[in-house]
Amino acid sequence: MEQSQVKVVASATDNPKKHTKSFPAPTLSIARPIATNSRIRQDEQYRKDMYLAFINNALQQKAKGNSEAFDELLDQFNLKNSASGEAPSPSPQLRLWILALSHVVSRLDRPLAPLVEAIVNLPWTTMDNAFVKSYTTFIGMLVSARPEYLSLVLGTITRGFTHQSGLQALDSSLPEGSSRPLTRRVVYERQHYLLRHLLSLIPTLPSTLQPLLLSNFPHKRQSQVAQITYIRNLLQVMDYCPELADRILATIVDRALQIDVEIQVELEELEELEGAGEQEEVFELDPFDTVVGQEGSDEESESEDGDDVDNFSDLSSDAGGDDELGEEPEVPTDFRHVQDMVSKLDAILKLIFDHFNRTHASTPPLPALVQSPMSSRPDSPLFPSDTPSEPYRPPSPESLERGKARRRAQFHALLSIFDRAIIRTFKSRYTQFLVFWYSSLDPEFSDLFQGMLVSKALLEDDQPVVTRAAAASYIASFVSRAQFVDREGTRRVVSVLCNFLKSHIDIMDAVTMQTGTTLPPTQSMGNHSVFYAVCQAVFLVFCFRWRDLVEEEEEDMDELSSVGASAPTKKWMPELGVIQRVITSPLNPLKVCSANVVTQFARVSQATDFIYCYTIMESNRRNETGYSSGPSTPVGNDRGTHSARSRATAVHPAVLGHSINAELNTFFPFDPYKLPKSASYIEGVYREWSSVAIDDEEEDEGEEEEDEGDVAQGPAIPTSDATQDDTDGLGASFGGMSISPIPPRNLVSAGL
């Protein structure tokens, strides 16, 4: 019985000439005898019944311990044996086997797992359209009837999203039935097509899918094309699987952070080294448009450095520990490695920006209702056709509201990622700009981000000190650099920061009166570190936004001065009055804060007639007690009283020892954005220092006024260091402030 059935099947499949009418190639235009549709369907049903009879017998014999027929069935899915010589494509034959197996999916238990594995591992994405539809239907029936195979199926799908999977699919030598070349885009779209179908059948599928998506994430050492291929597919999964959108986004941002912290050199230096080598290609081919089978050997060599690394990601909680606040990861210095990391990070961030921009600029589609595979449109990406697409329809009010809600949810997810990972990673340079750009889309987003930072820095006492200080650095850099933060927003932030400083100084004064000493208690060292971070935040914001901190009445006063009256003193917002107490306090922030910020604050505050800092700065320089916060602080002319000088320089060593001065000196989260591909998203919303720097003429006028007053104050202090370091006015430092951990002697030469 078994031998006769095998012979029948063999005679039905091994003689293509005899059954030419039964297997018309769906996309080939070959003259053949006319056959009616009913005749074709009848013949196909007959053959499917034959296959089903053989399958039933094979399963029965397997249950009795005789695996001969089952092994023959298994061999039908061994494509290396099926496709050889000039044999026709086995897709029609495989499709009939799949259709027959669809009737027995409930019987495919664990002992028959080898058959299921062989079917799941078929290179089905490279086969013809008819097979893709039948295969998708079969897999849906399989996991519905046998949930134990869900992990196997999903694991294969997620591996199919990788760049390497496209190369492995070529081993079958099974060309797509269409005359049009098969591209990677079609291969990946078919994987998404199957996954969407399974999502419509199994509501609990996301819980199984998420860890598989994570485990197949390419290692950070793998090539750029491997990274962007997988990330593009993950971003597409986010569109039709909203349950996983937040976790997928967090996974991608974590990968960007891991790459970001390895870039600890100035990109200007990298460009200089790159200029001596080969120039980068001007035109880049989208890897999704690569024709399957035409990948060059360059891609293999490009990923050689990642071949010895398994596909399992290092995105676990233990992987990124060395990069968090207070840690010192090993910084790679190899030029090619850093160049490769810069290119990867730029490409990854551009993908995320593009995804966010599509969410913002276009109306999201209606919730995806996955159709039956048999009812798919013939002009879908799975089955490319020349049929024109449907005309664009304007969005409805309901869809616009859904889009707004989706953007709001996405921003809250991004804020959560920022709170969990980004703010805790000190050495990141560019990943935080995702939040910066998204905040520019809506004033509500900007307010939420600023509120989160202010709360974390000033109000959340349970936060680690280093996190609170980082939040202060973020709020200062954000308000200074974001063009979309208006005058009122700037004044609100400065008011809150100044009130915090006033409260801190009031407490210090009260302690001094009670104890009779100016030495701060050691148990409050953490609070002093936050105090210094907030001081630096106010200094930085003042340098960029001082025009917004002047009271509006100043405009009327300027009109009076234009008719011959002497220039009046600017009237500042009242909260800034505490700064005089701050800089003359025993905590002496001008000594502890970043020398770069202090220098610029001193110059801007002098030019705007706000406050004079050079007396204290020079006293700090002369009375250093073995502590250094960077290069020699540039100073101006001596002016002020002896009491102010002596009061401000008495800094307790414990304060300096417990401060976060090193981090304050090097952490400016929103430094100028230097990644070329993704920079276009930042340019329109970013404030450059050159746009707010005080003109040289205005600065010179301020210095002349100070010189007149210095004649009666005493001998002038040499200022050669200051003038030599900053010959271009106020722009040399803030135009390219760096967060790189550069030794102090290199700060000036590095563009600080």
How would you sum up this structure in a few lines?
The chain is an all-alpha fold and 752 residues long. The chain has 34 helices and no strands.
Which terms summarize this structure?
RNA_pol_I_trans_ini_fac_RRN3; mainly alpha; RNA polymerase I core binding; RNA polymerase I-specific transcription initiation factor RRN3; ARM-type_fold; disordered N terminus; 3 domains; translation initiation factor activity; 752 residues
What does this 3D model show about the protein?
- The protein has 752 residues and is mainly α.
- The protein has three domains: 1-174, no CATH class; 217-293 and 311-378 and 398-431, no CATH class; 432-554 and 571-720, no CATH class.
- The chain contains 34 helices and no strands.
- It has helices spanning 2-13, 37-63, 68-75, 79-82, 91-101, 113-120, 129-145, 150-160, 163-168, 184-201, 205-215, 224-240, 245-260, 267-275, 298-302, 335-361, 397-422, 433-439, 443-459, 465-481, 487-515, 525-549, 554-561, 578-583, 589-592, 595-607, 614-622, 642-648, 653-658, 661-666, 680-683, 696-710, 720-725, 731-734.
- Helix 8 crosses helix 11 (205-215) and helix 18 (433-439) packs across helix 19 (443-459).
- The longest helix is centred in the middle third of the chain and has 29 residues, at 487-515.
- The relative contact order is 0.06.
